[in-house]
Structures are given as C-alpha cells and as structure tokens.
Amino acid sequence: GQQLNQSPQSMFIQEGEDVSMNCTSSSIFNTWLWYKQDPGEGPVLLIALYKAGELTSNGRLTAQFGITRKDSFLNISASIPSDVGIYFCAGPFEYGNKLVFGAGTILRVKS
Amino acid sequence: DAGVIQSPRHEVTEMGQEVTLRCKPISGHNSLFWYRQTMMRGLELLIYFNNNVPIDDSGMPEDRFSAKMPNASFSTLKIQPSEPRDSAVYFCASANFHTKTLEQYFGPGTRLTVT
C-alpha cells in the first residue's frame, strides 16, 4: 500500500540551529501537508503545498514540494525551544479524500 | 473561530465498560475523520464520513468499535466492551470536502485509558 517515509526519525539540536527534515512517497502526489503536534495536543496544520516546485514559508518554517512530486522538505530556521514536538508529513491516499501520514520526526531542542 | 471540539479530554475506564467519545467538527466542514494514535502504531485512520455518511470504515479494528454521525455538527465513536489494548489517544479531524484541498483540522484528542 501507499507509504510515506519520513526522516530523520528524531533530532536533538541546539537552540538557534537550523533544522531540515524530509518525506518521500512511493507514488506521485498532488498535495503535501506538514503538521506539528505539541505534547498532549492534536496535530496542527503548518503548511500546505499544491504544486510541484512550490516553496512556501510560514514564519521561520519553509516547506518545498519536490519537483519529482514524490518528496517534500520542511526547514526550520533558528530553532527555539517551542519548536519541540513531532512533525508529520501527509499526502493524499490513493482514493477518497483521506490522508496518509508519515511516522513523524521528533524534534528536541537544547537551550 | 472554534476549532474541532472533542470530549472528554481524558477518560479512564475499566475493561468491559462502554466508552463514548464525542466530536463537534468545525462549522461548515462536511468531512469528519476519527483517528487513533499509539506509540507502536502511530496515527491510524479508523473511519471517515462525508456529508454525515460513512465512506470508509476499513480502519475500525473490530466490531467492538462503532461510529455515528447523526448530523453535520456531531459525531460519536463508541467502544463496547472496552479492552486495555484500546488505550490510546483518539483524535477527530474535520475538513471541507468541497474545496478539494484535503486539509484536515484536528481536535485536541481524548486520552483513553482502559484498566
């Protein structure tokens, strides 16, 4: 079935460092979504991408829709302690209007 | 604007008891999704509705689980009888199917503990 491979699984970085994570799919996507989940809360939509090559920013976050349409990248610049959480990528399932999610990247920030 | 509302936020129950989780989607959204999250299995889709009609329940673990959406502003997920392996965080999410953007908005979740 459809799979999303998200990497890295976890990161432990120093406050102020930049962060990069990515997601690859086994099939071509027309949408990529990036979510963040804070401890004890539900996932929150950060950025939505709809076009191959698209680069979209949301504050210190920047996400890109890969030109192959099989990958996406999320970058966080100048990390701060509140960036801690789990970051999920998601894309369309092969049918219907449901999503398939990556396993998540756990981000920890050392201050 | 109110987001997705879930209740209760925490539920502790004994094995064999019936559990009912509730969800109010974002006003105007016409798709509703129930997910379960565990450390072992991550985020799993259990069932989803479009226009109050169940579309795909292939993720529902077994007959002990049932979900209803009697109207556009309310849905329930019921587990009867509950078992310790049902302990997880259950999320409800809603979306606007007609925009075709697939963007889903999640509630804060219900943390279920079955002892």
Kindly describe this structure.
The complex is a heterodimer of chains A (111) and B (115). With 111 residues, chain A is an all-beta fold. Chain A contains no helices and eleven strands. Chain A has strands at residues 4-7, 10-14, 19-25, 32-37, 44-49, 55-58, 61-65, 71-76, 85-92, 99-101, 105-110. In chain A, the strands form two sheets. In chain A, strands 2, 4, 5, 9, 10 and 11 form a six-stranded mixed sheet that branches. A five-stranded antiparallel sheet of chain A has the order 1-3-8-7-6, with no helix packed on it. The N and C termini of chain A lie far apart (40 Å). Chain B is built from no helices and eleven strands. Chain B is mainly beta and 115 residues long. The A-B interface holds A 31, 33, 35, 41-45, 48, 50, 88, 90, 92, 96-99, 101, 103-104 and B 4, 31, 33, 42-43, 45, 48, 50, 55-56, 91, 93, 95, 97, 100-109.
Beta-strand content bin of chain A: over 45%
Tell me roughly what share of residues is in helical segments of chain B.
under 10%
Elements of chain B, N to C (H/E): EEEEEEEEEEE
**What is the number of E strands of chain B?**
11
Rg of chain A (C-alpha, Å)? 13 Å
Question: What's the overall average pLDDT of chain A, rounded?
Answer: 95
Termini Cα gap of chain B: 37 Å
Which helices and strands appear, and what pairs or packs with what?
The complex is a heterodimer of chains A (111) and B (115).
Chain A: E1 4-7, E2 10-14, E3 19-25, E4 32-37, E5 44-49, E6 55-58, E7 61-65, E8 71-76, E9 85-92, E10 99-101, E11 105-110
Parallel strand pairs in A: 2-11
Antiparallel strand pairs in A: 1-3, 3-8, 4-5, 4-9, 6-7, 7-8, 9-10, 9-11
Chain B: E1 5-7, E2 10-13, E3 19-24, E4 31-38, E5 42-50, E6 53-56, E7 65-71, E8 74-79, E9 88-95, E10 105-106, E11 110-114
